[in-house]
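Supplementary Text 2. Reproducibility record for the structural model of the 287-residue chain.

All settings were left at their defaults, and a single model was retained for analysis rather than an ensemble. We include the record here because the model underlies the residue-level annotations in Supplementary Table 4.
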Amino acid sequence: MPAEPRKPVEVKLLTGGQGPRPKRPQGPGRVTLVGAGPGDPELLTLKAVRALGTADVVLFDDLIGDGILDFVHRKARCLAVGKRGGRASCKQGDIEDLMVQFARAGKHVVRLKSGDPMIFGRAGEEIERLRREGIAVEVVPGITAALAMAASLGLSLTHRDHARSVRFITGHSRHGTLPDDLDWRNLADPATTLVIYMGGRTAPDLAARLVGGGLDPATPAVAVRALGRAAERHWRGPLAQLPAGVGLLGLEEPLLIAIGTALQAAGKAEDAAPIVQYFNQNIRYSG
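Retained model, structure tokens:
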């Protein structure tokens, strides 16, 4: 059942926040789509920091990491417009209306998104709407979750001996299920690393379809919960046990999944048993 929509919530910056905003020339409003990366403020680009420091209005996602809003000057308006699977979320149309409303009033609007705006971030819809309204829009890229996961776990998504391509797919269609038009036989290529965004709730179907498409059930898999945040946890194991691994991590936080033989190289130094990592503690289970 779709979650109930919610309204944007204005947030006051009680601590931190930049000082007086730099002067900028008067003119028409504009929108900057900014990628906030996985949550660590130190992974923001310099251009992202400059955009936040000159914003009049910031519309930010629920998954924005602690400390990132500290780069916004104190007089800016900050509105939480987060969208979360299975939870009350702002409607996409309402978010776009706010961007248009503030930009038409001559404001510099920053639409602050976790990860990278152009990877499963609805940026295409927002850019299309803004261009249709005649509003200038710029994109500042961020570190997408797949690359943040690779760095966090110390694993390479490509490997000369195992994987010569990487594919990012969504595990969540408009209807809350796996997309109907994915080519599972093609996705089951053993020489490709798959990274599945928003695939927690569809993990059992995902694993079954990949195995049905010809992928070995023993193919290494990784699942990461709350990537880049204090609650980050990891699971590693074979594809066949992915649904159980996701069950251990839970669905309360966003979950990212990676599958492929390239992950095998990263796991050689670890015990063969699947692992759930709670911060610095590894909890093993038999499967």
